[in-house]
Write a structure and sequence with these properties.
Length: 67
């Protein structure tokens, strides 16, 4: 019976790691979206360029953080 319990715990370990990664991905993308006006001011770029930067950051974070 203990071997079944151990195999179930291993499956939940991966799930916990993925959930933590997903949480940090959502958190970082939310923070980046709120920072768009600051990025526009600091780098002296248009809204379109800042939006592309935010989009690329979100795509990269969505791939890298969970892995």
């Amino acid at each position: 019976m203990s071997s079944i319990d151990q195999s179930e715990k291993k499956g939940y370990g991966w799930l916990v790691i993925l959930m933590i990664g997903a949480f940090f991905t959502v958190l970082s993308t939310t923070l980046m979206s709120n920072a768009t006006p600051i990025v526009m001011k600091e780098f002296d770029v248009s809204a379109t360029a800042a939006q592309w930067l935010t989009t690329i950051y979100m795509l990269t974070a969505g791939i890298i953080i969970p892995t």
